[in-house]
Every structure is written in structure tokens, then in C-alpha cells.
Amino acid sequence: MSVFPKIFLRPEVENYLKEGFMNKEQFNGLSVPILQHPDLQDVLLIPVIGPRKSIKKQQCEAIVGAQCGQAVLRGAHVYVPGIVSASKFMKAGDIISVYSDIKGKCKKGAKEFDGTKIFLGNGISNLSRKEIFNGLPELKGIGITMTEPVYLSPSFDNVLPHYLFLQNLPSALVAHVLNPQPGEKILDLCAAPGGKATHIAALMHDQGDVIALDKIFNKVEKLKQNALFLGLNSIRAFCFDGTKAVKLDMIEDTEGAPPFLPESFDRILLDAPCSGMGQRPNMACTWTLKEVTSYQPLQRKLFTVAVQLLKPGGVLVYSTCTITLAENEEQVAWALTTFPCLQLQSQEPHIGGEGMMGTGLSCEQLKQLQRFDPSAVPLQETDIDSLREARTEDMMLLANKDCIGFFIAKFVKCKST
């Protein structure tokens, strides 16, 4: 679990956050530090407290799925659809222990479960077992309010949606590496749910044109909603397959909608679909070898489109939230060989580690990459006392390292293709 997984844009809301957290029942009046990142002035970080080993487990239990368990570790309460089983005597108002079924073996509606499970903390049931498993599909909402989570990570459901966007640290870094300027035309090729696209627009002071593409309709609608909440008018989102975003035989522009003419954009972000092996927390490994190896060819299709759409002198940033060589450094080596018009560029700010050896890139080229490797930091317990005693410099150093697995490469296009 990342010590600093909570990242926010627009630091002027710091006082609102402090007031909100102290009033949450999980925090019981604790004053949790909110830190401004020294290299990213629009980013605030909130430490996560845990794992808390002194929580007393209850006789009454509820089992949730792995996806729900991951959300709880990041500060969420338990919603009814995520509850897989509950003790036969569970009533509304009971204090219960919540566990995650990480192997997916628990049967829906079971009264007990002896399989592999991970303790997530204690909470108060808002419904009885009978109400939860009465067969009504429309039953939604919070089923269990987490009052003693193992990791004290605040929930941000509907918290200042007009001022904040929740991101992991490397995700917030990407837009700064792209360095968009007011008045430019920017393309976010795989944009949903919109964290990076909205950040790009904010860095441009909402002056310019940010085109955001994603091929899943519901995700595009969510992106539009996020832009609306944040009051950003420069973003235009389209439900469109990024691999088909360039139209080589087109004579006239399609009035700003995809597909686009070649060399139409000043800067392009390709936050590529990937195996997601850097995501944290991750309580269940569901990847198959076939699935993992399927991403490299898709990434190369998207990368080729990005190069075609980029203006000479333009900047292309490639990023993933995975840790494999095949999807990261190997893609950089392929790109430099396949597209002689591209040059690898150094990145600012540079807060991650350098790239990994093994793909033929030089030591100098590896230093121009940013790789975030959570395995480089040993798991350690963080409590409120240690946070109060820690130096800000040490906390920032840890924040830069103990995050999700992530990769960033920056290119400039030196001439037309």
C-alpha cells in the first residue's frame, strides 16, 4: 500500500481538506498532515496511516470481493454490490470485521467462509444480512461504513469535485513532463477517465485546445463530467478508437473531430493501455500470459498514430502504469529505431528512478527515462506519531519512491515523417 497514494490538484483547498478529514469518524479528530510537493506546485499529498495492527477482530464477519477490497484499502466504504457473504446473525448496526476474498472462492450469499482472506478492518453494517441478500438488484449504496480500516486513507466521494482530482503521484507528474503551453493544440490519445487531460488543461490555464479520445462511451461521458466539475472549457472529448485517429487520405479537416490530419498537434500524450502491473493496492493477480503479451502490439499501433499526428518540433510523452520491460524500455528502443525523426528527451521534473537495463538503450538514454518501482521501498508501518516526528524532506523522498509502478518517456519530433 502506497504511503502517499492521494494526490490533489489546486493546493488552495488545503484548509478545506484538513477540516473535512478531522471530522470523519475514521480519523476521530486526528490532525493528518497535508503536504505540498516541492517540485509540483499544484500537487498536495496526504500520508496514509497503517497498517494498524491493534484493531480487534469481531466475531461477525463480512466478505467482499478483491476489487472492493482494493477500494477499501484506498479509503472507500463498502458498497452493497461488493459484499459477497455475511455472518448469518448480522444485523443493521452491528460492528463487523471486513475481509477480502482474494482468490474469488467465496460463494455469493454464503454464511461463513474459511478460504484465503485478508483483513481490511472493522465497520458498522447499515443493513442486515437478509436485506443485503434479498435478491433485489436495485439495492445499492453503502452497506458497511468503515470505522476502523487497517489503512487509514480518507474517502473522497464527492469531496470538493470542483477543485480536486484524485491521482497517484506519477500520474500527476505526466502532465508536467508534457509541459503544455497556453494556446497549443494537445492530444490525449487514451484519455479516460480524464485525470491527465484535465490536468493538461489546467496547466494551460484553460487556453488552447485539448482533444481527449477514448473508445469506451461511458468513460468518455465520465471524462466530460470531470471537465465540467472542474470548470474546464478547453477540453473536447470524443468516443473514438485511437488506432484510427489519423486519416492519411483526407484532404480537409473534419471540423476538429477525429480522425485528424497528419501533423495536427503541438504535443501528444500517449498514456497507453497496459497490463497495469504497477497498480497498488492489487489483491488479486488475474493476468494471463496471453493478456500481458497482447499490449505491446496495441501500444505500437497507438505510438505510430501519435508520431504521425505530431507536428515537427512537437513533444510526445509515452507512459504506462506497468513495470514490464516489454511495455516500457523495449518500446522506447523500438520507437527510436522505427522512427528516426524522434529524439529521446530529458524530463523535468525528474523525481523517479532511471530506466531498466536489458533492451539496448545506453546509460545516458536510461537516465532520460523515469521509472517508478514500488518494490524498491520496503513495506513499513506508518502511524500518526511517526508522521509528526518525520522531517518533511524525508517524507517527500519516501513519497517519490513509495507509489504505484509507473513509466514515462519523452520524445521530440525533429522533422516530418
From TrEMBL:
Protein keywords: Methyltransferase, RNA-binding, S-adenosyl-L-methionine, Transferase
UniProt KW rRNA-binding keyword: no
Gene Ontology terms, MF aspect: RNA binding; RNA methyltransferase activity; S-adenosylmethionine-dependent methyltransferase activity
Residues that bind S-adenosyl-L-methionine: 190-196, 214, 241, 271
Catalytic residues identified in the record: 321
Cross-referenced Gene3D superfamilies: PUA domain, Vaccinia Virus protein VP39
Start and end residues of each SAM-dependent MTase RsmB/NOP-type domain: 89-414
One BP annotation, GO: RNA methylation
PROSITE patterns, alphabetized: NOL1_NOP2_SUN, PUA, SAM_MT_RSMB_NOP
UniProt key word Cytoplasm: no
Family statement drawn from the similarity comment of this UniProt entry: Belongs to the class I-like SAM-binding methyltransferase superfamily. RsmB/NOP family.
Protein name: Methyltransferase NSUN6 isoform X3
Biological source species: Carlito syrichta (Philippine tarsier)
